[in-house]
Amino acid sequence: MSVERQRCAWGETDNALMQQYHDEEWGRPSHDSRHLFELLSLEIMQAGLSWQTVLNKRAAFKTAFANFDYRQVQQMTPEIPVLLQNPQIIRNRLKVTAIINNANTIAKLADRGEDFDHYVWAFVKNHPIQHHITSHAEVPNTTDLAKRMGKQMKKDGFSFTGPVVIYSFMQAAGLVNDHETSCFVYQLLEK
Predict the structure, then answer these.
(1) Is there a contact between 146 and 170 (Cβ–Cβ < 8 Å)?
(2) Is 20 a member of any domain?
(3) 6-65 pLDDT, tens digit each
(4) Active-site residue, selected from the candidate residues 4, 10, 12, 21
(5) Binding site members for Zn(2+)
(6) Catalytic site residue 119?
(7) Contact assessment for residue 83 and residue 94, using Cβ atoms and an 8 Å cutoff
(8) 26 catalytic, yes or no?
(9) Closest by alpha carbon to 110, among 161, 159, 70?
(10) Count of domains in the chain?
(11) What is the pTM of this model?
């Protein structure tokens, strides 16, 4: 007999990918630079679209962007025309170009001895911000911190780092915990 787990409202879906993403990834602190680059890239792709659309294309994005290995992605500028012909991904030139640019920026950080993980987590002083959301309607689409982070990232060479994209990235990477307080994942992250 299985026990029903209560999820955030958006995680209560028949879409298995969405449910798995909610249960196993979203909001869980990530300290893997490759994974963080992937999450930032996916949030860039999601801008103006539904998250489900991006999630359904995630495997194709991983294939197209060398499993988000930033060292490989930074070499992909000559492949932009090919990427823009790939029907399996979102073919938006600004977004594709931003991902490649961001790979270059992460590589420059790494070349200076700064890991993308440390760069990102410094914005929250290396500790996730614990919000206490009781309803999905309370979740903001951005915050002052996300605005400051996005501006600094742009200044440091990143592209497509508007406040909404950055706040979504912060949520995905676990820099903020925006799971509803009744959600089983919130309970795990509060411990």
Answers:
(1) yes
(2) no
(3) 999 999 999 999 999 999 999 999 999 999 999 999 999 999 999 999 999 999 999 999
(4) 21
(5) 8, 22, 179, 183
(6) no
(7) no
(8) no
(9) 70
(10) 1
(11) 0.95
User: Does 23 map to a domain?
Assistant: no
Measured distance between the N- and C-terminal CA atoms of the chain, rounded to whole angstroms: 26
- Specify whether 21 is catalytic: yes
- The residue annotated as part of the active site, out of 10, 25, 51, 114, is 51
Among residues 43, 70, 167, 186, the one annotated as catalytic is 43
Q: What is the 3-state secondary structure (H, E, C) of 114-180?
A: CCHHHHHHHCCCCCCEECCECCHHHCCCCCHHHHHHHHHHHHCCCCCCCHHHHHHHHHHHCCEECCE
Q: Is residue 1 part of a domain?
A: no
Are 43 and 165 contacting, i.e. CB atoms less than 8 angstroms apart?
yes
What pLDDT, in 10s, does the model give residues 93-148? 999 999 999 999 999 999 999 999 999 999 999 999 999 999 989 999 999 999 99
CATH number at residue 90: 1.10.340.30
Q: Is residue 12 part of a domain?
A: no
Residue 60 domain boundaries: 29-190
Cβ–Cβ under 8 Å, residues 129 and 151: no
The annotated binding site is made up of: 8, 22, 179, 183
